[in-house]
Structure formats: structure tokens, C-alpha cells
């Protein structure tokens, strides 16, 4: 059974405990069609407000786990419930054991040259039974012969799960554009997680993580690259949350809010069709 969906800023999110997420991953592997796993944090939900194709992709995803404290806060503020978050920096170690127990295989695609290979080595050191069928860096042309060569390498391996770390939103777009050509059962976007698993970036201290301040730690590590995302982006996210809360709780909107069916999209359903594909081609760098 799929996890129950909630909505934060109109974006589908499917919270769950670690055990529930693990069971859902196995279900996706065996469901007989490609599955998609995405992360929900303040940055990704902000991007969904600005990129209609990305919001549509989240709507069609099979699993959208809570990756950021902002989404946990938003779910609580909007009355959706209290949910913990699951970050890939911490989740990967129990996940590796679960995947090994189940016999599920991985392929790591993305991040700078050498990072995915080192991440794979550390994962194997942590869990020798884990089947990692291959790795490839993310510095390749996303169209043409070079891209096709990467796809063919993945297809020779035929992993259960392809983890894609190309940076947001490029990684979502690559999955969207090429999933029909890739022989993997589940596509999972993971951002810069390989760099943390490989030890190229320090992991957030546990006490900061418990406070929901992973973003602050990352900002201190890479202030120039991440200042706009976290300083401006977190403020924009908070303002959007407050606007949504007001829209749902102001007296003039109470009747409308009660009329919305729970768990249903606020807008028209979006299908995987040629019309939407034309919009996807507008993504910069496609």
C-alpha cells in the first residue's frame, strides 16, 4: 500500500517512518514499472512554485520523502500533521543494510569525477553485502553521444535503483527525460549526497541536525554557493507558508477550504503526455 500523501505549498509529499519508507522502496522495485523517489525540502518546494514542469513531476512521483526541517515545520503549521525528516546523509547507512538484506542493487550517477566511486567504496566498507553495480560522475553532456554512452553503461548493469546526483532541478529533469530509455526499476534523486558519503564534505553534527539546522551547517561550509539558496530561499519559503496558512484559515476561505477533497490536487490532474513533454524541453540546458 502506498503512503498517504499530504500537501505543502500545493506540492505532494508522502511522509513515513524509516520502516515505511524501506517497505515502499521494495514495493516500487517489484511494481513492474519504473518508480521515482524525490526529496521534499524548502529548496525543492520553492522550485516547484517557479517551475510548473517540476511541480507536475512531483505530482507524478511515487515517493516524496520529507528531507528538510522546513517541510516538517510547514506540515505542522498547515495542520497536516507532525512528521520527522529523513536526510540522505544519515539515512544511507541503515538503508544500505536494508538494501543488502533484500538483495536490492544500486548504481550511483553524478557529482564530480571520483566522488561516486569513493562513495561506493565507503558504502561497501560499511555493508560488504551491498550490491553496487557501477558508478559514473555527473560531468557529462546531458544530450548526444556522451549522454547515450552513460545510459548504455547503466543499462548493461540493470540496477534496481539508480541514484542520480546532478544538482536540482537538473537531476529531476534528466530522470524525467530519460527514464524510459534507462533499464532501472527505481530512479532516485540524491543531490550532493555522494560527496558526504565519500567524506569529501563533512556531515552535519547530530545535535545541529536534531535542531533542524542542517542548512546552517551547509551554509557555513559553502557560504558563497549556498547563500542565496538558504538566506533568501528559506525566507521566501516561510513567507509562502504563511500565505498558504492565511489562505486556508482566513474566514472568507473557510468554506472553500472545507470543500477541497483531502489528498487531491488543488489544480487539474497532469498526465504524462506529449503536451507536457513540450514544456519539459524548455528547461535550460536540456
From TrEMBL:
Chain intervals with Basic and acidic residues compositional bias: 273-286
Protein keywords: Glycosyltransferase, Transferase
InterPro entries, sorted: WecG_TagA_CpsF
Disordered: annotated span: 256-286
GO molecular function ontology, one term from the record: hexosyltransferase activity
UniProt xrefs under Pfam families: Glyco_tran_WecG
Protein name in the entry: WecB/TagA/CpsF family glycosyltransferase
Amino acid at each position: 500500500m502506498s503512503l498517504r500523501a499530504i500537501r505543502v505549498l500545493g506540492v505532494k509529499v508522502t511522509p513515513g517512518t524509516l520502516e515505511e519508507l524501506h517497505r515502499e522502496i521494495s514495493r516500487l522495485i517489484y511494481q513492474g514499472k519504473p518508480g521515482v523517489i524525490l526529496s521534499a525540502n524548502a529548496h525543492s518546494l520553492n522550485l516547484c512554485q517557479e517551475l510548473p514542469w517540476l511541480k507536475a513531476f512531483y505530482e507524478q512521483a511515487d515517493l516524496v520523502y520529507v528531507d528538510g526541517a522546513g517541510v516538517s515545520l510547514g506540515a505542522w503549521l498547515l495542520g497536516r500533521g507532525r512528521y520527522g525528516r529523513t536526510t540522505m546523509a544519515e539515512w544511507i547507512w541503515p538503508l544500505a543494510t536494508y538494501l543488502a538484506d533484500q538483495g536490492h542493487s544500486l548504481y550511483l550517477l553524478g557529482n564530480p569525477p571520483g566522488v561516486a566511486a569513493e562513495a561506493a567504496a565507503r558504502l561497501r566498507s560499511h555493508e560488504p553485502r551491498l550490491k553496487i553495480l557501477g558508478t559514473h560522475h555527473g560531468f557529462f553532456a546531458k544530450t548526444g553521444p556522451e549522454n547515450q554512452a552513460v545510459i548504455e553503461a547503466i543499462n548493461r548493469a540493470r540496477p534496481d535503483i539508480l541514484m542520480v546526483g546532478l544538482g536540482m532541478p537538473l537531476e529531476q529533469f534528466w530522470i524525467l527525460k530519460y527514464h524510459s530509455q534507462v533499464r532501472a526499476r527505481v530512479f532516485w534523486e540524491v543531490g550532493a549526497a555522494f560527496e558526504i558519503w565519500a567524506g569529501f564534505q563533512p556531515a552535519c553534527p547530530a545535535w545541529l541536525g536534531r535542531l533542524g539546522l542542517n542548512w546552517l551547517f551547509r551554509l557555513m561550509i559553502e557560504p558563497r554557493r549556498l547563500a542565496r539558496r538558504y538566506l533568501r530561499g528559506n525566507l521566501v519559503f516561510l513567507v509562502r507558508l504563511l500565505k498558504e496558512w492565511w489562505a486556508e484559515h482566513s474566514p472568507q476561505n473557510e468554506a472553500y477550504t472545507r470543500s477541497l477533497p483531502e489528498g487531491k490536487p488543488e489544480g487539474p490532474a497532469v498526465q504524462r503526455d506529449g503536451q507536457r513533454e513540450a514544456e519539459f524541453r524548455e528547461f535550460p540546458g536540456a
